[in-house]
Amino acid sequence: MNPLEQRISAVIARIERAAVDVGRDPASVRLLAVSKGQDVDDIREAVRLGVRAFGENHLQDAIGHIEAVPAAEWHFIGRVQSNKTREIALRFAWVQSVDRGRIADRLAAQRPAGMAPLEVCIQVNIDGDPAKGGCAPADVLPLASTVAALPQLRLRGLMTIPALDHDRAGLRAVFDSAHDIYQRCRAAGHPLDTLSMGMSDDLEVAIAAGATMVRVGSALFGPRA
Ligand SMILES: *Cc1c(COP(=O)(O)O)cnc(C)c1O
Questions:
Q1: Element (H, E) at 214
Q2: How remote is the C-alpha of 96 from its chain's centroid?
Q3: Which of 46, 98, 102, 208 is the most exposed place for a label (fewest CB within 10 A)?
Q4: CB of 132 closer than 6 angstroms to any ligand 1 atom
């Protein structure tokens, strides 16, 4: 096994163990490989090894990766600036970082009619961390209704990124709150299937709290350039 193959196997084993430890089906947790700052050859190799979905948080850097590996499923996970929505709507299958109605409106209007609807997660900023995007928890339900009503968007779920300074208990509290909001959206009639939370250092905590997708960069690819 080459080093990338070993790291991919190790991450998949962590996901499976974390799921089994809390009585969940390992197949209920998807892996999103975060390829920002990584080499195109490693992305191609990851595809060859069975990784299907990749996340990018910076449009300009993502374009080269997407053009090199067009068959992969590309997720935008960074802040969405309004002057970038047209390119994002054209190039990505998913946008996980929708946090205001104006961005949702633009993505819907700019998603070409001939393409499948854009899969959307609402990013929620649970701990009010000013360094991160995301709407306030109280704004999730209204924004979910906005997204659900727009053509060319399909509301799939929620995404969250905790602030950097939490201990394990604090992380768990953030992930539990996100799960709680996710369940409230479902109870309100939104057929969500995606709760995107957990990264290289905390994916076990996120899976214990109900994550259905973990976004893993450095544990898969090694340090970023
Ligand atoms: C970079 C990034 C990740 C992956 O972080 P790692 O710690 O390298 O696993 C996950 N989610 C988002 C939104 C990111 O920007």
A1: strand 213-216
A2: 5
A3: 102
A4: no
Q: CA–CA separation, 213 vs 197, rounded Å?
A: 6
SS3 state at 119:
strand
C-alpha–C-alpha distance, residues 95 and 201, integer Å: 23
Ligand 1 center from residue 200 Cα (angstroms): 7
- Distance in Å, CA 215 to ligand 1 centroid: 6
Measured CA to CA, the distance from residue 174 to residue 190 in angstroms comes to 22
What gap in Å lies between CA 124 and CA 132, rounded to an integer? 10
Say which amino acid occupies 27: A
Q: Which residue has the tokens 């799921």?
A: 19
pLDDT in tens, 151-185: 999 999 999 999 999 999 999 999 999 999 999 99
Residue 148 token pair:
């659900």
Residue written as token pair 């990584």: 38
The pLDDT score that the predictor gives to residue 128 is 93
Please give the radius of gyration of the chain, using alpha carbons only, rounded to the nearest integer.
Answer: 17
Q: Which atom of ligand 1 lies at the shortest distance from residue 224's CA?
A: 8
The finding on whether 156 has its CB within 6 A of some atom of ligand 1 is: no
Closest Cα partner for 30 from 128, 156, 182?
A: 156
Of 10, 11, 7, 22, which Cα lies nearest the Cα of 211?
22
Per-residue DSSP letter, 115: S
Q: What is the Cα–Cα distance from 4 to 210, expressed in whole angstroms? A: 27
